[in-house]
Amino acid sequence: MQFAERAALDFRSIDDAFVAELRRHFSDAEIAELGMMVQQYVALGRLLVMAGGDKMACEIYVAEV
Question: Which residues contact 39 (CB under 8 A, 6 or more apart)?
């Protein structure tokens, strides 16, 4: 969860120490796959917000700024 949150909100906070911790639990291939999946869903969510689809398809949406 922390990896997904950092990747979505502050990807520059993923430093060598954090990657070392990830490697204690996951292989490099698993980290790459997890990163690809997280960013795919982040991109899709942002696209939906840009297109207004979040308001049509979901009761929870990002407030207008």
Answer: 7
User: Residue 58 — very low, low, confident or very high, per pLDDT cuts 50/70/90?
Assistant: low
- pLDDT value at position 51? 83
| pTM as predicted | 0.68
How distant, in Å, are the alpha carbons of 15, 34, 46, 56, 65 from that of 37?
A: 19, 5, 14, 24, 28
Give the H or E element holding residue 54.
Answer: helix 53-57
Q: Which DSSP string do the residues of 15-27 spell out, in sequence order?
A: -HHHHHHHHTTS-
Through-space distance between the first and last CA atoms of the chain, rounded to whole angstroms: 27
